[in-house]
Amino acid sequence: MPKILITGGAGFIGSHVVRLFVKEYPGYDIYNLDKLTYAGNLENLKDIEELHNYHFVKGDIVDGNFIHELFEKEKFDGVIHLAAESHVDRSIKNPMEFIFTNVVGTVNLLNAAKSVWKDDFQDKLFYHVSTDEVYGSLDEGGFFVESTSYDPQSPYSASKASSDHFVRAYHNTYGIPVIISNCSNNYGPNQFPEKLVPLFINNIRNNKPLPVYGKGENVRDWLYVIDHARAIDLVYHKGKVGETYNIGGFNEWKNIDLIKVLCKVMDEKLGREPGASENLITYVQDRAGHDMRYAIDATKIMKELGWEPSLQFEEGIAKTIDWYLNNQKWLDNVTSGNYKSYYEEQYKDV
Ligand code: NAD
Ligand code: DAU
């Protein structure tokens, strides 16, 4: 039975990837390794935790000895690496956490794979899940393609770019079979409400101000999280070793336009007067070094692996809003405790 290690499986994207693999591949043993930081939540996996092929390991990828021992013990055949510090605003306040987890943690995993796999790479794969932010910021035209030069602009994206470089270096130098994918902004159920979509859904519901950075004109390219998980499945099984795949749904939105869609749909769902939630929009100081535009050209994964998004944006947003409205307890749980002090500090002027 192949053993696959999925790191960061208690987080937003990781939990959807773990669920997909556990359910689609009952013949695989799936190990979810997660430190359970503020962003990791085992509630996300309640529905599958009893299944025979799912195993949870609590641990920190920054702890090299622990990672090495885990690999020695379990002899994983494959790794899908998602564990990371993932929020740009937090990276601006505290870059070191990002260097430890995203860079040192990734290199620890590569070292463990190198040491345990030795030179026997038959049916082995180290799949590193990365972001489009490594490519930097676009003006109005053009797209990120796989050969776009790296130009990270935030401590978060610099740490992810660094981890991507290490993954490629270990392939080139030691022959570790690797694949990298770089995806655009995800949205959907189980996302921690520090990120734009769940933060604004939660604030609209609670009639709290909607803090729009700058003029709200920055553009992001949005993909439903389950479509990202499907792409990861395809890349893991059909991707070519040594290659990079960009993942995105050709779905660009100016922040302010997306926010107005959230307000409109939520007014309808909450039975509010049309326009009521838009009154909550509050322009605040811009994010430092705020990237203007991201846009992924996903032609390669579409043509070579036959992937395409399954959901139209309108459907995805409606499903996402319904999920948060129906899971208020989940939101209340994750927004209590430490998150309260983060929120008060980050949005103190709002
Ligand atoms: P997330 O913040 O929701 O989850 C991260 C998970 O990693 C959490 O469960 C956390 O507990 C775990 N983790 C953090 N530090 C750890 C450590 N030191 N050891 C072990 N586990 C640790 O993140 P996400 O949004 O699900 O992103 C997952 C991955 O996908 C990241 O690598 C991110 O860079 C990448 N990505 C995210 C997006 C997006 O839009 N969210 C888009 C493209 C790529
Ligand atoms: O592009 C992929 C990346 O997308 C991932 O690698 C990151 O892990 C993920 O967090 C996301 O990064 P962004 O910075 O684009 O996402 P965020 O949800 O933080 O912000 C989206 C846009 O909304 C961005 O232009 C900043 C703006 N914004 C965000 C917040 C939290 C606001 O205007 N107000 C806010 O309060």
Structural class by secondary-structure content = alpha/beta
Q: What do we call the CATH homologous superfamily of the domain at 3-187 and 223-247?
A: NAD(P)-binding Rossmann-like Domain
* Oligomer status: single chain
Could you say what the CATH architecture of the domain at 3-187 and 223-247 is? 3-Layer(aba) Sandwich
Mean pLDDT: 97
Low-confidence stretches: none
The N- and C-terminal alpha carbons lie at a distance of 53 Å
Number of strands: 12
Overview of this protein structure:
- With 350 residues, the chain is an alpha/beta fold.
- It has a domain at 3-187 and 223-247: NAD(P)-binding Rossmann-like Domain (Rossmann fold).
- It is built from twelve helices and twelve strands.
- The chain has helices at 12-24, 64-74, 88-93, 95-117, 155-174, 196-205, 225-238, 255-270, 299-305, 313-326, 328-335, 338-346, and strands spanning 3-7, 29-34, 54-58, 78-81, 125-131, 178-183, 185-187, 210-213, 219-224, 244-247, 252-254, 281-284.
- The strands form three sheets. The protein has a seven-stranded parallel beta sheet with strand order 3-2-1-4-5-6-10, sandwiched between helices. A three-stranded mixed beta sheet has the order 7-9-11.
- α1 packs across α7 (225-238) and α2 (64-74) packs parallel to α4.
- The longest helix has 23 residues, at 95-117.
- The chain is globular, with a radius of gyration of 20 Å.
- The chain binds nicotinamide-adenine-dinucleotide and 2'deoxy-thymidine-5'-diphospho-alpha-D-glucose (DAU).
- The site of nicotinamide-adenine-dinucleotide has 30 residues, from α1, α4, β5 and β7.
